[in-house]
Amino acid sequence: MNDTRKGFLEQIREALTSPKNGFQSVTEKDLRRGLAIVLVTAIVSASAGMAYLSKIPIEVLISSLASYNVDPGPVVQTMGTFAAIGGFVRVLIDWALLTLMMHALATLLSGKGNLKRFFALTGFAYLPLTLQQVLRIVDASIAPPSALVNLYVSNAQATGLMKVIVSMNLFTLFGIAALVLKGFAVSANYESTTRKGVLIAAVPYILFIVLDLII
Asked: What is the overall mean pLDDT for the chain?
């Protein structure tokens, strides 16, 4: 590993264009940089959630809440705030939980790895999701309300496997890209093959899908 610490922007560029080599330069000293990427993702995700809800007619929100036997009166006016808080917290919890799960599995299968460095690496793996959330804000600003209403209603009515797919945000170009980068992160930190790293990164998602379908 190169002893010279690379600049943040250079690490971002390499993570996106040449992750196999780029992730080798990420050390435990880059934890703050990885955390910064996750925090930006969380903030943009929260903003995107508020932007979408702000364009959905209040009648649609009231109808959606009523279908769940929830009194819409005290809730509907604060849905945007709750969506923002939920989006922000979910990104952080997903990052922490998935990183710990991958660490446990990779340690079991590939040997000891540096957890602090792995958190830094998985932070950089969130870059595709950061871009996705930025595009969601752009989409919310230009999409007609009717299109957003249809999307909101279809997501709210999703059940079974489709509901799991929608909630996990995995089966999209950005979700798959982030999964692959997590595989490179596993490979870099636990000295495994890239293929094995991707498989390890996929296991927590598979477990969540199975649990959601069972429960």
From this structure: 84
Is residue 9, in this structure, part of any structural domain at all? no
The per-residue pLDDT for 2 is: 47
∠ CA(137), CA(138), CA(139), 5° rounding? Answer: 90
Which pairs with CB-CB distance under 8 Å and at least 24 residues apart come from 173-180?
Answer: 173/128, 174/128, 174/129, 174/131, 174/132, 175/128, 175/129, 175/132, 177/128, 178/125, 178/126, 178/127, 178/128, 178/129, 179/205, 180/19
- With beta carbons less than 8 A apart as the criterion, state whether 127 and 12 touch: yes
- Higher pLDDT: 4 or 100? It is 100
Q: How far apart are CA 120 and CA 29, in angstroms?
A: 8
Q: How many CB atoms lie within 10 A of CB 45?
A: 26
| Model confidence at 42: pLDDT above 60 | yes
Q: Domain range spanning residue 46?
A: 18-214
Domain assignment present for residue 5? The answer is no
Gap between the Cα atoms of 202 and 51, Å rounded: 31
In the chain, the number of structural domains is 1
Residue 171 lies in a domain: yes
pLDDT tens per residue, range 170-186: 778 999 999 999 999 99
- Is 8 domain-assigned? no
Q: Where residue 161 falls among pLDDT bands split at 50, 70, 90?
A: low
